[in-house]
Design brief:
By secondary structure, this protein is of the alpha+beta class. It contains 19 helices and 8 strands. The strands form 2 sheets. It has a 5-stranded antiparallel β-sheet, with helices on both faces. A 3-stranded antiparallel β-sheet has the order 2-1-8. Helix 1 packs antiparallel against helix 18, helix 5 packs across helix 10 and helix 12 packs antiparallel against helix 13. The radius of gyration is 26 Å and the shape is globular.
Length: about 475
């Protein structure tokens, strides 16, 4: 077994593997045993810093004749069906591979943006995501989560970028998808008909994402400001939700909108809307050959799954697969979205890294977000006040979380230096002693018992003092 940052950390990793072995035996005894696919073994090796394949190989074989075990599904099945009604949530046992990858990619993204400064004319908040300590905190709180296989850190800044951040974007995608689906249900209950409309523009090879966004924005403004024609198009419409999508493919950057609109039955005129969009493209010189065939598409949305498709964010395909039909929040299945480009860049492709950085710059400068509702639509549907992307991306502590202790700023810097944020969360769900063993292996001391929120609040009050002191 290989040590990770010291002998004590290696001891902790060994204990984690043995705990997994014991868990496997308990599942088998309950008739819930399952095969250990390589896709679940590899994340453990990455997180613990040890080779666990050999340890897993030593686990006891499954007893196919055990009472209560369901019959195999066949030679082509990867898993056996569990005996009803008991259900095992694999996320409570092992972290999803997509989550492991997202945390690693965020660390890589911070490195890729390390040389960016405000002087270059674009915001750098994404550079600090998951790294800087939140204002008002004196450290980072570490919590265990009974509902997950990994814990929680509290008191760390997030960027809230809904298109480019590998950690924030999936959180925002899931929240926005649920909002869009709820809006669809309320509009349908009120008797409105939903249509999914896609607006796109021909794009040129070699054009930057910023130029494509700017050109599309001009056409979009002209499309929505066509005087009486625009007013006639909106007559009988309750409102709409807009989702932005940007991908990079063989023809360069591609940017377009998905619109989920709610109209009185029979009021939406597809032909008139298409003609007006083509006229808007013509006004910016983008009504190129093939625009009549590919620049516009529309169809009715008959169920909630279709509405959720409209709410799909331009995040990793794994995040989209977990939510049913995620497309007014973006897209990643056509071409390569920013998350896919980041994954390729992390694999060592310097050219893709430059493309990703340029794309992120263009999005951040223009403050492009994933989903926008038309004015007053939320009020008409009786929806709650809209949360910002940053508010959604923040992980708030819940009642079931267990506070284990806090890390000082220098300890947190040490964890970041080792890229050990997510392994730390795995240790958190093993308890305080496991976290202390992990920190000791990295020569970072131990957790302290003070809540960083309370400590900082006291120190701020003392430092301010009174004008008459």
């Amino acid at each position: 077994m290989r040590d990770f940052g010291g002998g004590e950390a290696g001891t902790f990793c060994g204990e984690a593997v043995r705990s997994l072995s014991a868990l496997s035996q308990e599942l088998d005894a309950a008739g819930l045993g399952m095969q250990k696919p390589a896709s679940l073994v590899r994340p453990l090796s990455f997180l613990a810093g040890v080779e666990v394949e050999s340890a897993l190989a030593g686990m006891p074989a499954r007893d196919e004749t055990a009472p209560g075990r369901a019959a195999p599904l066949g030679k082509n099945a990867d898993f056996e069906s569990p005996p009803p009604p008991e259900v095992v949530d694999i996320h409570a046992v092992l972290p999803p591979p997509a989550t492991v990858r997202a945390w690693y990619l965020r660390s890589y993204a911070r490195e890729a943006l390390a040389g960016v400064t405000n002087k270059e004319g674009w915001p750098v908040r994404m550079r600090f995501c998951g790294r800087n300590i939140t204002r008002g905190f004196d450290g980072v709180g570490i919590y265990a989560r009974p509902d997950r296989a990994y814990g929680r850190v509290h008191g760390v800044c997030v960027c809230g970028q809904s298109l480019a951040c590998p950690v924030c974007a999936p959180r925002i995608a899931a929240f926005r998808a649920a909002e869009v689906a709820e809006g669809f249900k309320r509009a349908a209950a009120a008797g409105y008909e939903a249509s999914l409309v896609t607006f796109t523009a021909p794009h040129a090879l070699g054009s930057t994402l910023g130029k494509e966004i700017d050109c599309f924005a001009v056409a979009w403004r002209r499309f929505n400001c066509q005087g009486k024609a625009s007013q006639k198009r909106r007559r009988g419409s309750l409102g709409s939700q807009i989702g932005r999508e940007c991908t990079y493919g063989a023809a360069g950057w591609h940017y377009h909108h998905h619109q989920l609109r709610f109209d009185e039955p029979g009021k939406f005129n597809r032909e008139r809307t298409e003609a007006q969009w083509l006229a808007a493209l013509d006004s910016v010189g983008r009504k190129w050959r093939g625009a009549e065939l590919h620049a516009f598409a529309a169809g009715l949305v008959g169920n909630e799954a279709g509405a959720r498709y409209v709410a799909k964010l331009a995040t990793a395909a794994d995040a989209q697969g977990r939510a049913i039909g995620l497309e007014v929040a973006g897209g990643s299945l056509k071409g390569k979205n920013l998350a896919t480009l980041l994954k390729l860049a992390a694999g060592g492709d310097a050219d893709v890294r430059a493309i990703w950085v340029a794309g992120v710059r263009d999005i951040l400068v223009r403050k492009v977000s994933s989903v926008r509702w038309s004015p007053r639509l939320r009020d008409r549907l009786g929806m709650a006040v809209e949360k910002s992307d940053v508010e959604i991306a923040k992980e708030e502590v819940v009642d079931t979380d267990v506070f284990l202790g806090a890390l000082s700023p220098w300890q947190w810097c040490g964890v970041l230096e080792w890229k050990a944020e997510f392994p730390l969360l795995i240790a958190a769900n093993q308890g305080r002693e496991a976290v202390n063993s992990f920190l000791a292996g990295l020569e970072l001391g131990e957790l302290n018992d003070e809540d960083p929120r309370l400590v900082q609040r006291i120190e701020i009050n003392k430092s301010r003092g009174s004008k008459h002191d």
